[in-house]
Specification:
The protein is of the alpha+beta class. The protein has helices at about 20-35, 55-70, 100-105, 125-140; strands at about 5-10, 40-45, 45-55, 70-85, 90-95, 145-150, 150-155. The protein has one domain: Alpha-Beta Plaits. Helix content is about 35%, strand content about 30%.
Length: about 160
């Protein structure tokens, strides 16, 4: 079965609290489990960058919820399309705190076709490479078993 993916950026609502953010992530984990979606959510305190992947129906259902959410606005889709395999197979939704520069670099990177760099000379230059690197480094720094501080692993 081919998988689909969507990546977007958005502006957080000024009224979004840390507690509400954690609640939203927990709700996303539950919903994504029900529709077989995985992915990651970067947050720099003002902006989000999210990548979702899974079966087309699941990704569409999750994205419909995202578009209707009052926790953010100004959604700009970076790419949507078919992917050969999951990049985040263990995370129903992993929330990662990043700085403005890191989120900005990923947002303006090449999202064309959700590709990863093929050569070691280009390693880390595509948007997906950068997203994986930032998400993975956060996991390596605080790896736990089962539940992560700001997201959940798929079992």
């Amino acid at each position: 079965m081919p998988f689909r993916a969507i990546a977007y950026v958005s502006e957080a609502s000024r009224s979004l609290t840390e507690e509400r953010l954690q609640q939203l992530v927990a709700e996303a984990v539950q919903f994504n489990a029900s529709v077989d979606v995985t992915g990651t959510l970067l947050f720099d305190g003002a902006r989000f960058l999210q990548y979702l992947e899974g079966p087309a129906d699941g990704v569409n259902a999750a994205y419909t919820r995202i578009l209707a959410a009052s926790s953010h606005g100004g959604i700009v889709e970076l790419n949507r399309g078919r992917v050969g395999r999951r990049q985040f197979p263990r995370w129903r939704m992993r929330s990662v705190r990043v700085d403005e520069l890191a989120l900005g670099k990923i947002a303006i990177s090449d999202w064309t076709g959700f590709v990863r760099s093929a050569s070691t000379l280009e390693s880390g230059t595509s948007a997906l490479d950068r997203l994986l690197s930032v998400s993975q480094s956060q996991t390596d720094a605080g790896a736990g078993d089962g539940v992560e501080p700001q997201g959940h692993w798929v079992r």
